[in-house]
Amino acid sequence: MARDFRRPERRQGFLLPPDMQDWLPQDDIVHLVLDAVSLMDLSAFEDEHKVGGVGHRYAAPAPRHTAGASDRSVKPS
């Protein structure tokens, strides 16, 4: 069943810089993380949320997992 999540608009324009991709160099690791998360099966996280509920739509799980995977404050031991 399709879920009605809010999806991030990574090419959304802002005042400065005009494109979110301008904040990062082309060789930044976040591009690798975004690609890796886009290949993951996140259906288990999506299935937790009911369809047709009242109120705001849930945020899609991919951006949350991308943020966690790209957190640079986590240091390997």
Describe the protein in words.
31% of the residues lie in helices and 0% in strands. It is flat. Helix 1 packs across helix 3 (61-69). It has a domain at 24-49 and 58-69. With 77 residues, the protein is mainly α. It has three helices and no strands.
Entry keywords:
3 helices, mainly alpha, 31% helix, 77 residues, Transposase-like protein DUF772
User: Are there runs of 5+ residues with pLDDT below 50, and where?
Assistant: none
**Helical fraction:** 25-40%
The shape is: flat
Helix count, DSSP H or I runs of 4 or more residues:
3
Structural class: mainly alpha
The proportion of residues in beta strands is under 5%
Number of extended strands: 0
Give a quick account of the main beta sheet: strands, pairing sense, barrel closure.
none
- SSE arrangement, N to C: HHH
Task: Report the mean per-residue pLDDT as an integer.
Answer: 72
Query: What's the N-to-C terminus distance?
Result: 41 Å
Cα-atom Rg, whole angstroms?
A: 15 Å
